[in-house]
Amino acid sequence: MNELTNVWEERITPGDVMLLKHNSTKYAYVPESNALYEIDNNLEMILKSENETASVLYNKLPSPLEKGEFLEVIDSLIENEMINQERKTKEIETAHFQTISALTLMMVQECNLKCTYCYAGDGEYNEKGKMNFETAKRSVDFLIQNSGNIEELTLVFFGGEPLLNFETIEQVVQYANKLAETHHKKIKYSMTCNGTLITPKIINFIRAHDIYVQISVDGQKSAHDQNRFYGNQKGSYEIIMNRTEELRDKKQLGVRSTLTPANTNYTEIYQHLFSLNFRSAFLAPAMQMFNRESFEDLGVEFEVLTQYFLKLIEAKEYSKAKKINNVMKFLQRLHSGFESTYSCGAEVNFYAVDIHGDLYPCHRFVNNKNYKQGNVYSDIDHYKKNEFLLEAHTSNRQNCNYCWARNLCGGGCHHENYELSGAVTSPPVDYCRLTKTQLQSIFHLYLTLTEEEKEILLG
User: Is residue 264 situated within a structural domain?
Assistant: First the structure.
């Protein structure tokens, strides 16, 4: 404990806490502990103060305290980093980031669709082509060799449209299973595709190897076909529904929906996806298409989504509520106290491998040579990797280090930051505003849930 007398004339600077009122009770969200705390009028006054001394604040207390009690409160607030936070960047220990647990294989850098919002230039990443088996095989070797003591690994088949190279995927799985067994490891498989090329043969393969498959469906047919179509402008919704019916009926398919300014109704989209029997769903905006006004629309629609989530809980439809990943991911982070110091696992524990075997932080950076991190035929560029990880950590970002939302947000998608603001470490202002709006909705939702409901939903 600090010397109380040293605190008395010290100026009090509130930390990056978020104050809110739920029903008639006041709370403070504290990013350092990633938790919500109930507070009284005295604490609220202190946390709203502006660089005043403890003695001045003592005389302003709404509810009088003994001086010793008050100074103990001040000391406790300092220890819990709710006031007088020390502003400094952190030294990040990168040694435990030297192993990897997953690779995304860019099986094809081309696509059979021409989606309006595609960040990869029709899936080609400025260099059209397919990954051959030798490069894919070497990628599997590379994953095993760099996995250290990690026993469970992941291979993700990506594109473009990966099913344009299905024969190579078959070879990769067969090879990877044998190699993993030799090294006493287990490899899980995942694939992101558009659903238009799924056939009975591919369905059997998916089931035989327990491959988690996620496709893209942007809600209702009209909204989907407006942005996800073939080169002749024909929409892809109907063929996707026909080709994925068997997998959906068995709840063996996940889905990702892309939101656009014309399609921001989270609740309506989730309800439609539920009707199609997807096992899980996540919605994300095509950031480059949004302006401040349409971002505000997203914030309003997200609040409506949390109310829909509550209605599902009241109806005890917990399994359906758990599928609303846009809500669940924030609830889980808040409930567990886990600090999201990175927005994702890019370079932390996985890489994307392009058709030549070059390594990138994730699939979105493919063919951006400034972010090439090595090659599966040589090695990881550990200097560039560590440089990226140190810079991208939220505690080392000027904007994020002062933000109360940092440990629930993680700083935004590195690539979206890069595209919209010119730096992976600088999330766009409108994105930050949206995230804070969403988190305030999450706080009220979390405080509404009973302990029993939290146990069922969050464990």
Answer: yes
